[in-house]
């Protein structure tokens, strides 16, 4: 494996809550390359994550190639549904899991990172949430639809807006999207497909605007299905994985590490002229126009 050197670089990864998602895999790849990594964890699960980390639950997953364990310089509570403290509803502020934390809106976290570290070189958006994701689009409420857009796509715009000023020229930003942005994936509802479409469009627009304003690059990875905690909540992830293995050019499981390595490339100086791109890391499933396991192809 080609060794990349990111020593002296600092990365903020938003959306790490356990050790089996793409966010963790990207954070680990960055650590493996020598970067200093700080993370933002969804406020309601912050205590669970930090306790599990401290108690060694993730030690096996944290092992790097040299035998040491990946380290996180600091973990911040982050609820990317809110830009400023005045936007947080009283019922959220009074929630026990939020009362234990301070400064969890995007602007507040950016200010804390600036005060604690001064700057970052890399920004990763690995979070999404649609409260009605199990509902067909026709059965999605306006509230649920707008929540999916806010949590899953505008959150990226806000992160770039608030963290961009902390990044030097040549910095790199990445988000994670999904094929439902431009293909029909029954069951991936609640406005989440719309949110991913918006996220990809915003990736291109922000690549231009942030590139001209701060000289930073912005790209996206469209990853294949992974049996992560978040994906399990949707309810049909096993079917999607089986479908991919049956129809993709590479008939195998997709490992989170493979997405982590692709992210490492896009976030490294080796991709210094790549911006505004959507890179597919899905065993080639996106190239297929026909389901080769379809019953219609079976001979009588």
What does this entry show, briefly?
The chain has 300 residues and is an alpha/beta fold. 39% of the residues lie in helices and 13% in strands.
Task: Note down, in words, how this protein is organized.
It is built from eleven helices and seven strands. It has 300 residues and is an alpha/beta fold. The chain has a single domain, classed as NAD(P)-binding Rossmann-like Domain (Rossmann fold, 3-Layer(aba) Sandwich), CATH 3.40.50.720. It has a seven-stranded parallel beta sheet, with helices on both faces. It is globular. The mean pLDDT is 94.
Q: What is the CATH first-level class name?
A: Alpha Beta
Distance between the termini: 47 Å
Q: Summarize the main sheet.
A: 7 strands, parallel
Mean pLDDT: 94
CATH architecture: 3-Layer(aba) Sandwich
What's the structural domain tally? Answer: 1
Helical segment count: 11
Spell out the helices and strands N to C. Answer: EHEHHEHHHEHEHEHHHE
Query: What is the helical fraction, as a range of percent?
Result: 25-40%
Strand order of the largest sheet: 3-2-1-4-5-6-7
Low-confidence stretches: none
CATH level 4 superfamily: NAD(P)-binding Rossmann-like Domain
Strand content: 5-15%
Number of strands: 7
* Main structural class: alpha/beta
CATH topology title: Rossmann fold
Q: Please tell me how large the radius of gyration is.
A: 19 Å
Shape summary: globular
């Amino acid at each position: 494996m080609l060794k990349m050197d990111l020593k002296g670089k600092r990365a903020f990864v938003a959306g790490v809550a356990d050790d089996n998602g793409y966010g963790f895999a990207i954070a680990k790849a960055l650590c493996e390359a020598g970067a200093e990594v700080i993370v933002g964890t969804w406020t309601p699960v912050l205590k669970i994550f930090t306790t599990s980390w401290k108690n060694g639950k993730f030690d096996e997953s944290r092992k790097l190639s040299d035998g040491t364990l990946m380290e996180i310089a600091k973990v911040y509570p982050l609820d990317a549904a809110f830009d400023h403290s005045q936007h947080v509803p009283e019922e959220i502020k009074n929630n026990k899991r939020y009362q234990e934390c301070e400064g969890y809106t995007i602007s507040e976290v950016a200010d804390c990172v600036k005060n604690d570290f001064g700057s970052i070189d890399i920004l990763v958006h690995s979070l999404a949430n649609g409260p009605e994701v199990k509902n067909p689009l026709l059965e999605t409420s306006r509230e649920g639809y707008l929540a999916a857009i806010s949590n899953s796509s505008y959150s990226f715009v806000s992160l770039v807006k608030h963290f961009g000023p902390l990044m030097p020229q040549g910095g790199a930003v990445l988000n994670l999207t999904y094929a439902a942005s431009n293909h029909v994936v029954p069951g991936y509802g609640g406005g989440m497909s719309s949110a991913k479409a918006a996220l990809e469009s915003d990736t291109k627009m922000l690549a231009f605007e942030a590139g001209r304003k701060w000289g930073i690059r912005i790209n996206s990875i469209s990853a294949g299905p992974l049996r992560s905690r978040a994906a399990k909540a949707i309810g049909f992830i096993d079917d999607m994985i089986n479908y991919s293995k049956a129809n993709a050019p590479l008939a195998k499981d997709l490992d989170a590490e493979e997405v982590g390595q692709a992210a490492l490339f896009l976030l490294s100086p080796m991709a210094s002229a790549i911006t505004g791109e959507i890179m597919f890391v899905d065993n080639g499933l996106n190239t297929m126009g026909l389901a080769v396991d379809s019953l219609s192809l079976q001979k009588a």
